[in-house]
Amino acid sequence: MLFQRNSFMTAMLRGRLLSGLIRLSSSCVVPSPAPSSSVNSPDVDSDGTSDANKDLAVDETWIPSNNKHYVKKKKITRPRFAMLLSFHGSNYYGMQFNSHGPAIENILFDAFIKIGLLPEEKIRAARYYLDYQRASRTDRGVSALRQVVSLRITKGFNIDGINEFLPDDIRVLGIKPVDMIFDAQTWCTARTYSYIMPTYALRYFDKSWNDCHKYRIDSLSVLKASQIFEMFRGTHHFHNYTEKIDIWDQRSQRKINDTEVSNPFLMGEVEMIEFKLTGQSFMLHQIRRMIGMVIAIMRGKATFSMLQETLEHPMMPAPTAPALGLLLEKQHFDSYNKSRKTTMPLEWDEYDDEVEKFKLEKIVPYMVKVELEQKHMETYLDRKMRRHSFKGNDLSSKMRQVGKWDNTEDLEKLLKGDEDDSSKEK
């Protein structure tokens, strides 16, 4: 019995010793050499790029594993850049890429494809492939002098190469490297817009006045327009200056930092004036409706008190001015420039001359041309401004009878009283 037990233990020891020798011998085997470059790997092209993902680089180190070899792939680190654009938006459906018509980003991405910054099959997912973000959206027909976008692209390109494939009304003015934390929309702390229009739009309404283009505004009228525009400064509810947002929606609360009205200037036969404002962010049609409210007061369609009411009452829509005169002037990145993590501040002051040249050669002359040929502002004043009503629906008129919009108790009594009256009639 004892002999059988010792034999069994001896066999176990021999087995363990044999397995250890096998492992030791396998570790001493010299790995076979890497295949030559003439041998095509099933998942790697001849140019060293993987079929599965074209933006992956190939590491040429071959690593043995289970008597097979594989290629270790490393993702290319594309640096982040900020790009400065100027464009005349009269021929485009806004800034954002869309399939309904030509937009600024549609044209821009096509140029990226032609110079090799964007694969053609990635056009629908260009924002994700390039890690692309714009600082501001623009509506249809709105132009921009300094539109900043952030994106990650490979080095080895130049501005002239991009502009070669862009139309004359879209220009890339500059490209600067930025930190990897930079995002054009997130780090944009304020935006400056301007609105250029003929001065006769601010003239008090008079049926006997025929030749609008000969009108010249006086200094008192400019001062009055400036005072009206200043009433928008501060934080207010701009629910009546946009669409599909009510006063209880927090998105309607916006802050206007600064307003400015320029002196009148001549462009050909037409006298023009420029309104400029800076705010943290703006909603759809907000600036155009603010300008429309200034025009309404100057022409006697509304009063100063009505402007204050549009900022307080639930439903008192302001008129919308034409999109032709609206310009995105500048975007501010103060928080990014002051951040401790920022090593490359973002400033575009050296491009001011090019921006002003683009404005005076491409945008303002077109505004004057449309005004002279189509009487753009005159048509708006006659058809839309004259017929605009500041009254909302029946519910909004009942709310205005209450007074302050936040007086919910009186509002409930008013609505309840109307229900009682209607039940009595029945």
Please tell me about this protein's structure.
This protein has about 425 residues and is of the alpha+beta class. Among the domains are: about 80-175, 2-Layer Sandwich (Alpha-Beta Plaits); about 190-385, Alpha-Beta Plaits, CATH 3.30.70.660. The chain contains twelve helices and twelve strands. The chain has helices at about 1-25, 105-115, 125-130, 160-165, 220-230, 285-300, 305-310, 335-340, 350-375, 375-385, 395-400, 410-425; strands spanning about 55-65, 70-75, 80-85, 135, 145-150, 170-175, 190-200, 235, 255-260, 265, 270-280, 325-330. Strands 3, 4, 5, 6, 7, 8, 9, 10, 11 and 12 form a ten-stranded mixed β-sheet that branches. A hairpin with a 2-residue loop joins strand 1 and strand 2 (about 70-75). The radius of gyration is 33 Å and the shape is elongated. It starts with a helix and ends with a helix. The relative contact order is 0.11.
